[in-house]
Amino acid sequence: MALLLHVEPLWVSPYVFAVFVTLREKGLAFESAALDYRQGETSTAPYLNKTITGRVPTLIHDELGLGESTAIIEYLEETFPERRVLPASAADRARCRQLMSWLRSDETLALRAERSTDTIFYDRNTTPLTDAALLSAKKLVEVAGRMIRAGHPHLFAEWSLIDSELAFALHRLIVNGDPVPSGIKEWAESQWQRPTVRAFVEIVRPNLRG
């Protein structure tokens, strides 16, 4: 078995994050390699032939080259089911997938644009959110508020990947000083301490200032 994760050079992508946490939670050994689309590294014929869509993250598992984070996570969950990252029950698993899809949808696009993940790991953005991003942030907080239960550390009976993905999304607001209700903020900061999450957060990233 050989697992290779292709990532973007700065290690800030929420989709790289989701696959990285999945691999770590499952205890799978893997190597990583950064590819920069701006340098044409994801548009070479061998890479396109292997991965079809030519994006990152991409997981290379033996002869399979698979892109799109949700597809990768589903593949890992089915191929290595011993340590699950999705909920055990069908209903909770469906809700988890719903939330994962929503976090990747256009409804969060304005917030993702104005509070990019660069601001989590590099310089903060203190520019006020536009009306569109404020609506996106409001919806994110409302969704989180409907899912987070007082006194419960996870959204479902046990930890699942959506705990980490939702905390990542909320940190777009938290680190930039945007308002987040205290209970939701505390929940997200608690999720941020999970060892597999810390392993991603503490990766040594390139110095953008040269």
β-strand number: 4
- If strands are numbered along the chain, what order do they take across the biggest sheet? 2-1-3-4
Q: How many domains make up the coordinates?
A: 2
Our measurement of the CA-to-CA distance between the termini, rounded to an integer number of angstroms, reads 37 Å
- The CATH architecture assignment of the largest domain turns out to be Up-down Bundle
Helix content: 40-55%
CATH class of the largest domain: Mainly Alpha
List the helices and strands and how they pair.
Blueprint: E1 3-7, H1 14-25, E2 31-34, H2 45-51, E3 58-61, E4 64-67, H3 69-79, H4 90-103, H5 109-114, H6 118-121, H7 131-147, H8 161-174, H9 182-191, H10 195-201
Parallel strand pairs: 1-2
Antiparallel strand pairs: 1-3, 3-4
